[in-house]
UniProtKB/TrEMBL annotation:
Residues 4-365 form the Aminotransferase class V domain. It catalyses: (sulfur carrier)-H + L-cysteine = (sulfur carrier)-SH + L-alanine. It is an enzyme of class 2 (transferase). Its cofactor is pyridoxal 5'-phosphate. The keyword Iron applies. It comes from Candidatus Falkowbacteria bacterium HGW-Falkowbacteria-1. It holds the Pfam family Aminotran_5. One of its GO terms (molecular function) is metal ion binding. Keywords: Iron, Iron-sulfur, Metal-binding, Pyridoxal phosphate, Transferase. This is cysteine desulfurase. Belongs to the class-V pyridoxal-phosphate-dependent aminotransferase family. NifS/IscS subfamily. Its EC number is 2.8.1.7.
Amino acid sequence: MKNIYLDNAATTKIDKRVLNKMMPYFETKYGNASSIHFLGQENDLEINACKKEIAKVINGEANNIVFTSSATEANNLIIKGVMRANKDKGKHFLISIIEHPCVLASARELLDEGFEFDYIPVDKNGVVILEELKNKIRPDTVLISVMTVNNEIGTIQPIVEIGKIAKSKNIFFHTDAVQSVPYLKIDIKKWQVDFLSLSGHKFYGPQGVGMAYVNKKIKIKPIIVGGGQEDGLRSGTYNMAGIVGFTEALKISYKERLEYIKKVKFLRNYFWKELNKKIKNIKLNGSLRDRTPNNLNIMFESIEGEAILIDLSLKGIYVSTGSACSAQNLKVSSVIKAIGVSDEYMNSNIRFTFGRYNNEMEVKYVIKKLIETVNRLRKFSSAKHS
Ligand SMILES: Cc1ncc(COP(=O)(O)O)c(C=O)c1O
């Protein structure tokens, strides 16, 4: 069997239906949406239509949608833009300790500008501790940023409760919802979020297009300036094919949501049940209950996660050790550290994320190959230590 992809939280293969929708924007509908002529104006109308469609899906306002190049850019815009524009309100903000590196790095960058932030800790299951969140709020806290679903361990955060806390204290609330599609029904109003980020390539759309939901009643400073597109919040020529692809992929994801969830849940649960029967000394990182149905993050005692990843890759099986961003630098995952994993297990985790194009036969094959890999590496590891 060739190329089994179990890294769907890193990126997904584009859906053919999405690609077909995008193609005319490379071939015939290539006008710049800011141009005054027909080819441009037609695309300008299309962008507005896409925003309306997305707004319906997420129960928000079309006018608050800003297209970006990625969720990384959306998160940078929201964290830096909101803090920089609201200095009169305060200089303090809160982020969870398990945020994606683009939120962590944006927060750290603001320290140099005199802003201050605190991390909200998580419990051993990887869920933010609401009491700690409440205790860390200060009179000058401007923004709370907590991701909807963690990218490494798939844990679902208590977004509705956090929204309530934020609103009761008159604090702006951002959630990075990148990993939540379509597992959770995004609801801007019910969640009481002011800001939200999404990324097209995580739900079978194209890479290179993201979205920031921005409550335009709140002041925000752009990070990319120039031609003034997106009401001045994000300059740069609109990525037409990307925007159309993003919208189509989001719509399909929610239309086929229940069927999709059933499928990945079945594959994920089957995989986990079989591994437990067939491989000793493995542990799950994060809660099995408060977690999206596509994700397993497993620790394999006495083996390096990297060694498993490379061995599986040689067999044509693609997984990851954590987020795609941490794959380049072999440091310990801050998420794994935050949930209190002991030192001996620290580097021994592998993330398996199931998706639309996986099937039962593939999963059975991966189990077989993984058993071989683990047995071989454990033999090698015990020989090294004896
Ligand atoms: C939770 C989360 N936030 C942000 C990002 C960054 O998204 P993008 O690839 O669009 O920059 C990712 C991607 O790994 C993610 O998982």
